[in-house]
Structure formats: structure tokens, C-alpha cells
Specification:
binds zinc ion, single chain, about 90 residues
């Protein structure tokens, strides 16, 4: 019997290299033994790489400032109401 799988959040941190020392060892040894988690980490890594590239593009762009908004003066209330899949 395997131990229970780590949380997806933990796997995400592991995939991004955010875990350190003991935690990284634990998750790493589990992933090495668990195909499901290995696949999860693999796909999370791919997603993280894409997100990082996208994030890098938004910094250093000419004329981009954080004070610029195109919404109609609403606060972020409508944003959390709906989660898009994918
Ligand atoms: Zn697992």
C-alpha cells in the first residue's frame, strides 16, 4: 500500500522547486514511486513554465503601468465569482 498522495498544492510547490529540504525529499520520494503524482508534477511543471513565460512578458514592456485599468470602475468582486476551466 502506498501512502496517501500529497495535496495538489504541495505537488505544485514541488514542481516549481519551492519546496526545500525535508518536504522536497518526502514529496520527491513519493513522486518517484507514484505514477499518478509523477504525471501531475510533470504537467504542473509544463503549466508553470508557460505561466512564467507569460509573466515575464508582462514586465519590462514599454508604457505598461499598474494604474491603468479598462474595467468600468468595479472592484474585483466579479472576478472571483466565476472560475474558468483550464
Ligand atoms: Zn501519489
Amino acid at each position: 500500500m502506498r501512502e496517501s498522495c500529497p495535496d495538489k498544492e504541495t505537488l505544485l510547490l514541488y514542481a516549481e522547486g519551492e519546496l526545500t529540504g525535508h518536504e522536497a525529499e518526502e514529496v520527491g520520494s513519493h513522486v518517484a514511486d507514484c505514477e499518478t503524482c509523477a504525471e501531475t508534477v510533470s504537467s504542473l511543471r509544463a503549466v508553470a513554465a508557460v505561466l512564467r513565460r507569460a509573466g515575464l512578458r508582462s514586465t519590462g514592456g514599454p508604457g505598461v503601468t499598474s494604474s491603468r485599468t479598462d474595467s468600468g470602475g468595479l472592484t474585483g468582486a466579479s472576478r472571483s465569482a466565476r472560475a474558468a476551466p483550464g
